[in-house]
Amino acid sequence: MKKTPLYDEHLRLGGKIVEFAGWEMPVQYSGVVAEHVAVRERVGLFDVSHMGEIWVTGARAEEALDYLTCTKVSSLYDGKAHYSAILNERGGVVDDIIIYRCSKERFLICVNASNADKDFEWLTKHNPTDAKIVNASAEYGQIAVQGPRAIELVAPLVKGVDVRALKYFHFVECEILNSPVIVARTGYTGEDGVEIFVKAEKTVDLWRLLLEQGAALGVLPCGLGARDSLRLEAALPLHGHELAEDITALESGLGWIVKFDKGDFVGKAALLKQKESGLSKKLVGFHLDGAGIARQGDIVATADGKEIGVVASGTKTPTINKALGMAFVTTPFTALDTKLAFVVRGRSIDGHVVQLPFYKRSN
Amino acid sequence: MEFPNEYKYTKDHEWVLVQGDKAVVGITEFAQSELGDLVFVDLPAVGKSVATHGTLCVVESTKAASDVYSPVSGTVAERNEALANDPGLINRTPYTEGWIVKLSGVSQSEIAGLMSADEYKKLVGK
Questions:
Q1: Which of A32, A293, A345 sits opposite B36 (nearest CB)?
Q2: Residues of A with Cβ-Cβ distance to B39 under 8 angstroms
Q3: ipTM of predicted complex
Q4: Global confidence as pTM
């Protein structure tokens, strides 16, 4: 089992360690609810060092990524990042990723921990150019600082750059503690904040500095439990739940990042065809009206018991005190307010389709 | 962690307290800390008969649903309705306000055969 550079810090802080994608990670420290609320109201720190980092470099790096991912990488400029996906030939999602353009010949890709090795092999195998692809995951730690006071916490620590001026999905290569970092205004919680890529050996120092400087702001270290409930409220998909290789990007609601107005890319033909013929199932948001919680794998049915789908993610979240989730549902049962039934432990619970996301920050 | 002496315990981390001819059932402090913040308790119907080790109810955190097993056989005589609005009672006060059900028709000798506080303490290593 793999450990991040912050493993001993997690133990010291009373983190409860669980196995996640081959990593020993903290699922919580003080409690999922307290951590979730800290991020919504103040600021939370997440160890996301298990995420993978892959460099794509060289004169044809942009061309390679335009073919290997579904977004228009040629539309990026230096210091701009975008949310994207690696697709297979069927239009299924190999992984969802963030692509950062450092320069026209140097791109960083952040990938899911569980998929890092697979992604690296996939990209290497399908690379149509001589662009260099390097799995640098072991060289980086990564800390997400999330919440309405995140910028207030991070800005004074960064030398020579004003992080306050950094726009959403923009990033800057700079220094903290005299060590090079990449600070990106991105996150997975639905709140403002940054994700900081730091050298593996400097991760502990940065973590401690953020905890110390954040104490006055009410910072809390947060585990995977809060990360999951926060992302679900914000309706951000998780690979293995809303995204999978046998579900197409369009079915998962990623149509907004699939750019057909560029050259060929892996999955394009399949998705074009599906776009023309229409979707037979779609990802929808739901609330339960009856008591209970529907979770991944629970069956979705019509009021008269016909099976029409399956739950991708579900829980009762701390900020919205309601059982909610996302499910793949056959059309035409995907319209807002459609009554659905959820089969949980052999019992049927009423629910209905709602607008996503469940939570949207006001600022 | 606290494990009151007058309670009996199971290896599945439930506790039992005899109250007249009924047995009050809940989960231990160790169990609640392992489960984390509870957000829903799927209470059994009053009148439901349960076998020893049978599923009594399901408690759910944001992350997962976990079965609570019946420490002894009996019939659900009463359930803690306060858990519907505040499942966190189990986290905050597992031995008092966080009780789950009261069982009737229980066997005192079956209860007597359950673990003592000291034995349970040894089991969970606390």
A1: A32
A2: 33, 293, 315-318
A3: 0.85
A4: 0.94
